[in-house]
Structures are given as structure tokens and as C-alpha cells.
Amino acid sequence: MSHTQANLLLLLASLIWGTAFVAQAMGMGHIGPFTFSFARTSLGFLVVLPLALIFETKNINKIIFQKNLLVIA
């Protein structure tokens, strides 16, 4: 990874981190905390699941991978 790519990824991470607080504050005004937490967790799971399936390595035992997939998300 080049120096420029690393800097762009850091910029993206900070952008996501910073806007998350604004989105949470706005979201909590419209729905309850448990519904909001469920929606955040579900969205995270849906984002991580394809990435975990794409980057699955052959070294990982399939059964262990499947059992821990939900925990990873």
C-alpha cells in the first residue's frame, strides 16, 4: 500500500467516524434506542458478511468460520 493510499484510507475512516455521531444524534430523535441499535447492528452485519465471505482464507476451518461469523459482525 502506498503512502497516498494509506492517507486516503485514514481520511475515509475519520470521515465515517465523524459523520456517525451526527447520524446517531439525528436517528435517536426519530426512533427508540433499541430499534436504533438493532438497525446499526444489522447494517454492520450486512456490510461485514460479504467482506468476510470474499476474504475468507483457506486456513480457517469452515465450521469455526461459520460459528464465529455472527460474532465478527
Characterization of this structure:
With 73 residues, the chain is mostly helical. It folds into two domains: 1-30; 32-73. The protein has three helices and no strands. The protein has helices at 3-28, 33-54, 62-72. The radius of gyration is 16 Å and the shape is flat. The relative contact order is 0.07. The mean pLDDT is 83.
List the helices and strands and how they pair.
Layout: H1 3-28, H2 33-54, H3 62-72
Features:
about 70 residues; flat; membrane; transmembrane; transmembrane helix; single chain
What's the short story on this structure?
The protein is mostly helical and 73 residues long. It is 81% helix and 0% strand. The protein has helices spanning 3-28, 33-54, 62-72.
Task: Note poorly predicted spans.
Answer: none
Mean pLDDT: 83
For the report, how would you describe the main beta sheet? Answer: none
Determine the fraction of residues in helical runs and give it as a percent range: over 70%
Count of β-strands: 0
Transmembrane segments: 37-55
Keywords: Membrane, Transmembrane, Transmembrane helix
Domain EamA: 6-67
InterPro entries: EamA_dom
